Known about the structure:
The structure holds 2 protein chains of 2 kinds. Chain A is 73% helix and 0% strand. Chain A is mostly helical. Chain A has one domain (6-236). The mean pLDDT of chain A is 85. Chain B is an all-alpha fold. In chain B, strands 1-2 form a two-stranded antiparallel sheet. The longest helix of chain B is centred in the first third of the chain and has 30 residues, at 66-95. Chain B is elongated. In chain B, 60% of the residues are buried. The model of chain B has no long low-confidence stretch (mean pLDDT 85). Chains A and B meet through α3, α4 and α6 of A and α2, α6 and α7 of B.
Amino acid sequence: MKEISIHTLFGAALLSGIAGILLIGHGISIGIVFLWLPFLSAANSIRGMAMYGLGTGNASIGYWGTAVGATSAFVASLSVSCRSTLLLYVASVVVISLVIGLTTGVLADKVIRMRIPRIELNSAVIAVSTALITTGFLLILGSNYGLYPFIYILITLAVLHPYNASTGAGENQKRTLMLALVEACMTTLVIGIVAMLTSGSAMPISDDVAIVVLSAFGLVIAVVAWYRLVKSDIYEIRWTGYSPAEH
Amino acid sequence: MVDPLTATIMIIAGGVLVGVCVHFIPASATGAMAAATGIATGPSMLSAGAGLTGIYAAAYSIDSGIAPVIVSGAVGSALMLLITILCGNIMLAFGIGAPPVSGQTASGKSTFGGTKDIITGFEQGGYASPGTDGHGMPFQTAVSGTIGALMGGAGGALVFYAVYSMTLPEIATENAVTLAGIIAAGVFLINSVLPAYVLVGKTEGVFDMKIRSIPRTFISCLVTSSIVACVIYAVCELAVFGVVA
């Protein structure tokens, strides 16, 4: 089956992420569903890099990419009192994360000589995608600085885990991305619950409840779809009744 | 507090220190537990752990000036690493009966040559289990790791203090500490993963031949940290002058 290209997925994720942030910034909390696509894009790029056999493992690449993205978003949130100049905030987040992601990718390729095809493109995609997600979450949770490490860890796990869990013989993009969608829904669900429980949340509680309901709905659909894929993929190696030695 | 320009230089220096420190910290891949010398978490994860501990330690002395912050970060990080090494050695020695031995030294491929621990003089050859590249963390490796952790912790603390100095005029003290901490952690993670690519999953610290690839790490981390530092500087300056606030 033909795979979705990095460019297509990233283009869609970029537009979707920006749309999501703008909606959230204007008080429409359900715009968080538009942040699911950046999760898919980041997970796809981690797959693109890790499948060539990194010496550091999938976890490191996830931590690294999210560190670039989240740090860009945190740094940008420092100065721009972004609620008033939302477009400027989004633009600065995208530009900062793109520059740092691309630079680290080029360095890993040219100076460190990783020899992984399209490493600079993939690292830039991970950085921008995670930066968009972080920005959206920051707008929902408000200026609650104590939650910054939490946001970082949450996003990191959701983007690095899909390929890490699906890797091995028979791994394919469709199933990995579906697992990424499951984890994206799970992450927004947790963010919704945290926003409900946090007193300093930027949104009224009804908006937080909407996030939780929508994410739970998405989670159920994604889990069912993902489980179907797992079952259809595992069909070829399903137990036949014979032990391996006889088979 | 330091002025913004000095803080920018501190971020660059801290980032480079963090990158270089990874070469000193003994680590092997997770799958190579007891099959290669070093802590089996992978170099970047271990260095990041040591750095984060350093930043936590540094945060406790943030009001005492720059010197205590750096010392606190370095000592906190080194303590974390030494405790990890000690626990790892205890588990390996008493759990599965594998003595701490340097694989590179045992096979005569150490940076300084010979098959003896360069500090204690203990013979390494013959103690590595067949089919493995050493196990545990012998004395020389632990010393190398401690030096690395001291550098990493000091680097993390430098970044932390610099970001704190730059953000303090904008936001309240407790928020500045949190924000500086997470940004410092971000800089740490970016710089600690880059050298891990050079090390390809495993290093024994100074005594591993891979230490010779430090120049590549140095250049990469210098460029990355400079860009990150410039971005932080630009954003903070713009905020101070009210351009984008």
